[in-house]
Amino acid sequence: MPHTPLGYCTKQENIAVTGVADVVIRSLLDKQQFHDPLGAALRLGISSAHWPLFGLLWPSGLRLARRMAAHPVRAGERILEIGCGLALASLVAHRRGADVTASDCHPLSGVFLRANVALNQLAPLDYRHGQWGDGVLESATETGLSGRFSLIVASDVLYERDERGSLAAFIEAHASASAEVWLVDPNRSNRPQFHRHMRLLGFSVHEQALVQGQAAGETPYRGRMLTYVRGA
Fold first, then answer.
1. Helix axes 88-95, 59-70, angle to 10 degrees
2. How far is Cα 42 from Cα 55, in angstroms, rounded to an integer?
3. Where does the pLDDT of residue 137 fall: very low under 50, low under 70, confident under 90, or very high at 90 and above?
4. Helix 88-95 × helix 109-119 angle, to 10°
């Protein structure tokens, strides 16, 4: 049970993802961790209850990592993971040689990502701050993201109704004219609203059920692989 210099507790696991070598991940020990002495997370709208969520491995993130492990590495393809948390999918893509950028709004997401890159003995992985919501759409300059991406991926990001379409607008700000967007969603109720916003931006919408029983110590999973395609 390693302790970080900031005082919260972490654990280290080998995560099996079919198609690649196990990924070593250091994560928070549990959801009881919290450390925001200077209010950096609070200023970004991250409450104490939500603070630890970035630092845990979630079932949808594992499903996204598996899809990234099966995705062919293509010359010239730029991949962006948004709301990456511990960025397991980005680590998998990076290990396979893809050009991937991970992004999140949590002030410690980049810190944990650099630590996990080092634990896996990988070259540095590009990380940028990226945030949407509360009616604020940050520009590429403000988020640190630059250029456009032909593949944007995320897991479990449809956690609010988002009537104004902040997430779709954020994706639009960073998507190429021809682009795919992959979202793994654990059957939350906010898909129809997000579908509508993405259609208005010219994306076709495809859903695939992900239903997996208990195996190899995993809990059963039910969710959706949401794929949005524009300009194909």
1. 20
2. 16
3. very low
4. 40
Return d(Cα 66, Cα 141) in angstroms, integer.
Answer: 31
User: Which of 28-37, 63-72, 109-118 is least confident?
Assistant: 28-37
Residue 129 DSSP SS3:
strand
Determine how many CB atoms are found less than 10 A away from the CB of residue 87.
29
What are the backbone dihedrals phi and psi of residue 39, each rounded to the nearest 5 degrees, phi first?
Answer: 70, 20
Residue 150 phi, psi (nearest 5): -85, -15
Number of alpha carbons in the 13 Å side-chain half-sphere of residue 227: 11
Rounded Cα–Cα distance for residues 227 and 153 (Å)? 9
Q: What's residue 8's pLDDT?
A: 80
Spatial contact of 11 and 2, defined as CB atoms under 8 Å apart: yes
Is the CATH number 3.40.50.300 carried by domain 47-230? no
Mean pLDDT value of segment 83-94: 97
- Secondary structure element (H or E) that encloses residue 45, with its range: none
Report H helices in 18-108: 40-43, 59-70, 88-95
Does an H or E element contain 37, and which?
A: none
pTM above 0.85, yes or no: yes
Residue 127 scores a pLDDT above 50: yes
Quick one: which of 47, 121, 125 has its CA closest to 86? 125
pLDDT in tens, 103-126: 999 999 999 999 999 999 999 999
Tokens 């302790």 correspond to 3
Mean pLDDT, rounded, for 35-49: 81
Q: Domain segments of the chain: what residues?
A: 47-230
